[in-house]
Write a structure and sequence with these properties.
Largest sheet: none
Number of helices: 24
Number of domains: 2
CATH architecture of the largest domain: Orthogonal Bundle
Helix content: 55-70%
CATH superfamily of the largest domain: Hypothetical protein af1432
């Protein structure tokens, strides 16, 4: 980021919200639309500027803890977590409705007897499972929001997102006004957008009316119904300029400047979101950033270049948020369709980061880190000089960490074992200069530890 460039927090977070939409299988721009709905409800309710700012960021970050439950959803229901979560957004979680949902979506690749057993077992444990998943997601999301320096009101809004007005929500079964105001608006806006996108304004209005007094604060529903009586309100949600309009809300005031250190914190926080997607990638982005930095230092990159490299490494796998854990955590060989989906995660990452002004340059690394020098990589089949130097560095760091960490299909290798494979890839897939730099850096580190 150039020193003269001004980075607005609203622009940064709204752009990154597209990555969070991926984790929940929501249509592109779900969080942006929910934010638009929420802020207009806030205006209708007469919220003060501080409350409006807290509401704004609560809605954009409401799903920031969702990746932490992806692997567990796959394990419990033996299904595609992204599909399962997307369809679950339409449920009001009455027992008969949820049972029908399980019958339609759980364990679809199992034989009939195993599916029946799975459905009965999970149905009987619905309360415990729902608490576990919601508690994990909400509290982890709140912790990440705090790490990103957002207010306690934002963290509390994320914690309370699934609480219901009648006390039958989760995780703490709060009632009425004990639920954070930001959460009450965010949940209403979320449901309204889900039904608006899938079925139109009338369905959205009917659904929020149906849940008034159970899920939703009646006063907030009344505010939304007043807004929704104007067709222009719903039309605005389909405006292609909506992302810019959300960023430009005059009611939202950034409470702190975005400097380089803060950008590092946000990159690190999103790395946690990415790595939480599967237990097999815990700490992966941090380690790739470390190894990339070691290579960069060894190659004589200056501090600014190394900082760029660390951020790129932290966010290189952001596209994996759009890949099901049924694929990411599969212990056996991927079939052709699964492999095709995996091969698209760099392109997804490029698309997400290209939306983020402050991280736009990093999109090249996200998109290119699985390309090979011989042109046999993915997603674009770039070769030789078409692959930028930073992507070559991250590619080496990524492969080294993947080989030296546990994976669903094998145990971790030693560094020596990993370099046997890496040496075989050098020159065809991996850049020889970067491989040599990593080897020297690791030898120096070992020598320093032995001294």
């Amino acid at each position: 980021m150039a020193k003269s460039e001004v980075v607005h927090l609203a622009e940064l977070v709204s752009a990154l919200s597209y990555a969070l939409d991926l984790t929940e299988g929501q249509p592109v721009g779900h969080s942006i639309r929910a934010c638009w709905i929420s802020v207009h409800i806030g205006i209708e309710l007469g919220l003060d500027p501080t409350e409006m700012t807290d509401l704004y960021y609560t809605v954009l970050l409401k799903d920031i803890g969702c990746s932490t439950t992806a692997a567990r959803v796959c394990q419990l229901y033996l299904t595609d977590d992204i599909m399962f979560k997307r369809k679950a957004k339409f449920l009001d979680h009455t027992a008969p409705q949820f049972l029908r949902y399980l019958i339609a979506n759980a364990g679809m690749k199992q034989n009939l007897i195993d599916r029946f057993r799975l459905i009965i077992d999970t149905a009987l444990q619905t309360g415990d499972i729902s608490f576990e998943l919601t508690n994990t997601r909400c509290h982890r999301g709140a912790d990440i929001a705090r790490q990103m320096r957002f207010s306690e009101a934002v963290a509390q809004g994320i914690t309370d997102l699934d609480e219901h007005w009648d006390g039958k929500g989760l995780p703490r079964k709060k009632t009425g006004a004990d639920i954070a105001l930001t959460a009450r608006v965010a949940l209403l806006a979320q449901v309204a957008d889900v039904f608006f996108v899938s079925q139109g304004p009338e369905a959205a209005m009917a659904e929020v009316k149906r849940r008034t007094g159970t899920w939703f604060d009646p006063a907030m529903v009344e505010a939304l119904l007043r807004l929704g009586a104007d067709p222009a309100f719903w039309a605005s949600l389909s405006d292609p300029r909506l992302p810019e309009r959300v960023v430009a809300f005059e009611t939202v005031k950034d409470s702190h400047p975005i400097d380089e250190d803060y950008l590092d914190d946000i990159a690190a926080a999103f790395a946690e979101v990415i790595d939480a997607k599967t237990p097999f990638t815990s700490g992966h982005s941090d380690r790739v950033a470390l190894f990339s930095n070691m290579i960069g230092v060894e190659l004589g990159l200056d501090d600014a270049q190394c900082r760029y490299l660390r951020r790129a490494a932290l966010l290189h796998d952001i596209g994996k948020l759009g890949v099901s854990n049924s694929i990411l955590d599969k212990p056996g060989k991927l079939d052709d369709a699964e492999w095709a989906e995996i091969r698209q995660h760099p392109a997804l990452g490029r698309t997400v980061l290209a939306r983020v002004g402050a991280f736009h340059d990093l999109s090249e690394v996200a998109g290119n880190h699985h390309e090979r020098l011989d042109g046999k990589g993915y997603p674009c089949g770039l070769a030789g000089p078409q692959i930028d130097f930073h992507s070559r560095i991250v590619a080496v760091a990524d492969v080294f960490d993947a080989l030296t960490a546990d994976r669903p299909y094998r145990k971790a290798m030693s560094a020596d074992e990993a370099f046997v494979i890496i040496d075989d890839m050098t020159g065809s897939a991996l850049d020889p200069e970067c491989v040599a730099a990593l080897r020297r850096a690791l030898i120096d580190l070992e020598a320093a530890n032995a001294a």
